[in-house]
Hints:
The protein is mostly helical. The chain is built from 15 helices and 5 strands.
Amino acid sequence: MDGFPILGTPDTGDTAWMLASAALVLLMTPGLAFFYGGMVRRKGVLNMIMMSVSAMGVVTVLWVLFGYSLAFGNDKWGFVGDPTQYWGLKGLIGGNSLVSHLAAGTTAAVKIPLAGTIPQLVFVAFQLMFAIITVALISGAVADRLKFGGWLLFAGLWATFVYFPVAHWVFAFDGITGEHGGWIANHLKAIDFAGGTAVHINSGTAGLVLAIILGKRAGWPTTPMRPHNLPFVMLGAGLLWFGWYGFNAGSALTSDGVAATTFVTTTVATAAAMLFWLLTEKIRDGHATSLGAASGIVAGLVAITPSCSSVNVLGALAIGAGAGVVCALAVGLKFKLGFDDALDVVGVHLVGGLFGTLMVGLVAAPEAPAAVKGLFYGGGFDQLWRQAVGAFAVLAYSAIGTAILALIVKYTIGLRLDKEDEATGIDEAEHAETAYEFA
């Protein structure tokens, strides 16, 4: 695509739905802050919340300057968008975005740049919310021990050099043809409807690498580090589930049958994942916990994200049930392998994202909107290998990029909190505040 996208009059119904969806996805980041904040110890809850909230600031500024252009500008070298095309959202906002005005007494339509049937500015806002929460997700892996300044620098670098290019691979949207332009979606033809690769595999891999480079928390794993506020965790899970409808159903970019299908499959898979996580806990530990219910909800949401447009209800049930079991078992890997993933970002987002992405190749149903046949519907291994290549390409790129950026921050301004400050508590050390006053 050369130049600016086609000018036209947006569909008002689609525009209203997408504005609401963008707001729903933004709500997921405060929801994540509560989810993560409740899972850490009392002395780290404010820092945990601040890591999510600060991502809203850092990513937004970068996105409107050059991030949107890197992700959705004209393709350069098959890797990234043209960083100058939409610099500062030029051509999309202000005088240049309105090429005709309603004259007094006329019914002439105002024409603006479109992405499909919606104003491109709405698409800018919607995709911004994806970028924000992807960065925020990483923070759960490194709770209680990452300098706040180091986090801000890493977040900005990671968004620029890892997320924006990967978003181009998966989500790049041609405003003229209405087709995806990224190599994973367009050339490989892997299906990732709402971000199983770009969001969850990407952030989960980054969390793993950053946690390894940062090192373990003092006392882990022998010192108990239980969640300090489980009602916060449940509230966060509820907000995430609510906001995820904007994430998945909103990715249809229209208020149509595709949005309806993804809304239902998202609900079904999430419910199944919660139940099967609890069942796994009951069999393994003898108890079904509220933390398990909240974690199962998130695992189901993660797993159905790439596949919500390509499966029927039975496929959604299979993905949700499988994610509940697989992710519940995967969170224990950190103890066996010795990496301190504080809040199970790897077990839920990396493993759940991989599981959901690969399951498309097995249970994609021809009657679903994506109209693709998985292995179990007579499609052979064709879609499965495409899913695998897309998933592991993102994993490899994220791992390498995260390692380079984390080491840059480590050897410049530093990553790790001092031992004394970690013992005192990161809230007091980094923010001079405490969450609770007991005096």
